[in-house]
Amino acid sequence: MPKGPTKRRPQTTARLLEAAQEAFAERGFYGTSIEMISERAGLTRGAFYSNFRNKEELFFALFDLHAQSVVDRLTQAVAELEESDDPVRSVLARTGTVDAAERRWYLLSTEFTLHAIRHPETARLLAERDRGLREEIAGILARLFTSIGRSPTVDLDSLARLTTAVHEGSLAQSLVEPDRLAPEELAVTFLPLLIDAVSEPASPGAGAPHK
To answer: Which helix (H) or strand (E) holds 194?
Structure first.
C-alpha cells in the first residue's frame, strides 16, 4: 500500500471523529447522517467507509476516547489523594464536574443506549465496552480503598456499576433541573457514606493508609 494514504489515515479518522462529535451534539445520533459527518469533516463518503463501517462503529470509537478520558481523570484524582483532608469527597468532586463536552457526551450516550436496547447485537457490543470501562473503574476503586486504608467488603464490579448509576442518574436530574441540583451533589453527599458502608479498616500490611 502506498505510504501516503497510510500516513493520512490517522488524520482522516481524527477529522471524522471531531465532525461526528459536533454533528451528534447538534442533531443527535439518529438525526445525523453519514453524509453530514463526511461533509463537516471535508471528506467523501468513501473516506468515511474506509475508516468506519457505519455510525455505530464510529460511536464506539468515540466511546473509547471518552472512556480513556474518564479513566485518566479518575486515576489522576486518586493519585493526588494525599493533598486532600477528605480524599473520597475530593475525588468525587473532581470527577463530577460537568462541562459542555461532558453534557454533549451524556446526551449522545443516552440516546445510543436506547438504540442499543432496541438492537440486541448492538447491546452486546455496548455491554462489552461498558465491561471494559467498569474493569478500569473497579481497579481505580481498589486503589482508592488502599489509599484510605480500607478494604472493600463487596464485589468491586458491582460497586463500579452502582457508582456509575449514581453518577449518570444524578447527571440526568441535574441537566433537567440545573438550578436545583449540581451535577456532583448527590455523589459527593452520599457516595462517601456508601464507601464506608461497603468497606472495613484494612488489616495491617494490607496497604498504606491515607495520611
So the answer is: helix 185-197
Q: Which three cell numbers stand for residue 128?
A: 462489552
Distance CA 23, CA 17 (A): 10
- The grid coordinates listed for 189 are 453527599
CA 116 to chain centre: 17
Burial class, 94, CB count within 10 angstroms (exposed 0-12 / middle 13-18 / buried 19+): middle
- Report the alpha-carbon distance of residue 129 to residue 115 in Å, rounded: 15
* Residue 100, pLDDT above cutoff 50: yes
Question: Which of left, alpha, beta for 210 (phi over 0: left; psi -120 to 50: alpha)?
Answer: beta
pLDDT tens sequence across 189-203: 999 999 999 999 998
Question: What is the sign, positive or negative, of the torsion defined by CA atoms of 158, 144, 166, 114?
Answer: negative
Task: Return d(Cα 148, Cα 81) in angstroms, integer.
Answer: 9
pTM: 0.86
Contact, 184 vs 96, CB < 8 A? yes
Kindly tell me the number of DSSP H helices and DSSP E strands found in the chain.
9, 2
